[in-house]
Design goal:
The complex is a heterodimer of chains A (254) and B (86). By secondary structure, chain A is mainly α. Helices cover 74% and strands 0% of the residues of chain A. The chains are: A mainly alpha (254), B mainly alpha (86).
């Protein structure tokens, strides 16, 4: 295909796609107008029905809990996939000659980064736990809090040495957290079946809206998701770090 | 409020364009990190603070980190440490 022909095909396709896009955009509701009935209905009934002050959490972890379970397993599968793909390559990276490391030495960490990273570590981890625990009360939840917790591990790496990260990152424990987080979601779902209801039915006592222990199974599901996401991201980040640092410092990591 | 919304939309459009126009992968990772931050601000302005939180952690930190690490790996494998841009 010559460049001229390629350009013509592109321009024709772009004109069609652009026309369709414009046509579709003219049919959209006005800016800021919400025409669907579900949001209004849920806003009206969710706090009463589920005692969760965060209606988004009531949707994702209760009314449509099965969708979120699928979402959690997408992340689980992705992390497992990355671990498998990168593990297969580890043998060959360890055989790389040492001279690669010499001209690729990372510059030393500055004291400013170290102090800032260590000072941020406590607040970030605490905030992550807070976001996971208050998912049914305020914006946040297992996914958001879990990612925040994982950035804590990243701060350890940034402000210290990779060796330090390896010490605070017991692989067996992370693996356990990852899988128990994934399995926990299903276990909470089976709780509904065991109680004679449907899968993922909210069978625990709902409590008072606004209380930390309220909204039935939602805090538990948030905890499971938080565990899974935090462990998954730590696993993901350390797999990538290991790949690079095995190349950088063969003596230390192997 | 509408001014803020328009401003953040323009910022997102500029950020996305900047990511596309940056051709070197390493530079692109940094620009993408900035774009992730801008997207986080957009979610905050449009009252989705929970999405903003995960967007900042994933889009501005985790994704660029993985790109940078993958680039480091690729360049190490390409050998001799010399720059291999086209």
């Amino acid at each position: 295909m010559t460049p001229t022909l390629r350009r013509r095909v592109f321009l024709a396709a772009a004109a069609v796609a652009g026309g369709l896009l414009l046509w579709g955009l003219t049919g959209l509701p006005d800016y800021g107008v919400y025409p669907g009935p579900y949001g209004d209905v849920l806003n009206a009934v969710a706090v009463d029905e589920r005692k969760a002050t965060n209606v988004v959490a009531a949707v994702t972890f209760d009314y449509r809990g099965v969708d979120t379970m699928g979402e959690e397993y997408i992340l689980f599968a992705a992390v497992v996939g990355v671990a498998i793909v990168l593990r297969a390559q580890r043998g060959e990276t360890e055989q790389l000659p040492d001279e690669d490391a010499a001209d690729r030495r990372a510059p030393g960490t500055s004291n400013a980064v170290r102090v800032l990273g260590l000072a941020l570590l406590g607040p970030v981890v605490l905030f992550g736990i807070y976001v996971v625990a208050h998912g049914h009360l305020s914006p946040g939840g297992g996914f958001q809090g879990g990612v925040l917790l994982a950035t804590g591990a990243l701060l350890v790496y940034l402000s210290g040495e990779y060796v330090t990260l390896r010490r605070v990152r017991p692989v067996a424990l992370i693996d356990l957290a990852e899988s128990s987080g994934a399995a926990g979601y299903v276990a909470i779902g089976l709780l509904g079946l065991a109680a004679g209801g449907t899968f993922l039915e909210n069978v625990l006592p709902l409590g008072q809206p606004g209380a930390l222990l309220s909204a039935g199974t939602m805090p538990l599901i948030n905890l499971a998701v938080g565990l899974e996401v935090a462990a998954g991201f730590v696993l993901l980040i350390s797999e990538f770090l290991e790949q690079t640092l095995v190349v950088r410092r063969p003596g230390e990591v192997t | 409020m509408i001014v803020l919304e328009v401003a953040v939309f323009l910022l997102v459009a500029a950020g996305g364009t900047a990511v596309v126009l940056t051709r070197d992968p390493l530079d692109q990772a940094i620009v993408a990190s900035f774009y992730g931050l801008v997207l986080g601000i957009m979610f905050l302005v449009f009252q989705a603070p929970d999405v903003a939180l995960s967007q900042i952690a994933v889009g501005a930190v985790a994704l660029p980190l993985m790109i940078v690490l993958a680039l480091a790996k690729v360049r190490a494998l390409a050998g001799s440490g010399k720059d291999d841009r086209e």
